[in-house]
Write a structure and sequence with these properties.
Helix content is 22%, strand content 9%. It contains four helices and four strands, in the order βααβαββα. The strands form two sheets. A two-stranded parallel ribbon has the order 1-2. A two-stranded antiparallel sheet has the order 3-4.
Amino acid sequence: DIGNLPEVKETAPLVVDALELKEKIPSGQEKAYFAEQRESIMKQLQDHGAILFRNFDLMKDSEGFREFYESLQLNPCLDPIHTSGLREMVGKKDAVYEAVNKPSLAQHFVGLHNESTFVKTATYGAFVCFKPASEGGGEFLIADGAKIIN
């Protein structure tokens, strides 16, 4: 019932940009920063529903991305659509999947939806993009569902 939704105090996503934090994070210390700020980051995640981390050197490859989510004590999980064969796991150790990369789906648009809210799954998800779309498109939109409804 839409009338029973809680008031939206914060909106998603919160944008955290390394360029704006460069005085707080010494060079090569991003992993330590995330570990030290874990409690605050997880609270921000609860408040905002999503955090978009930009311009962090740590997350420029799959190994660094794994170090990022481990510093927040997040665990890797299976891709929710792993059984569909649409995505290939390219780095099992780092839990990195390739994007849906089938030519037949190149013009496919995935509309507004909630991620796997009907199944018991990981409480949090972490997503990363290492390279831009090569043929146009590739946008990944994040929206606060409660804010849209209100």
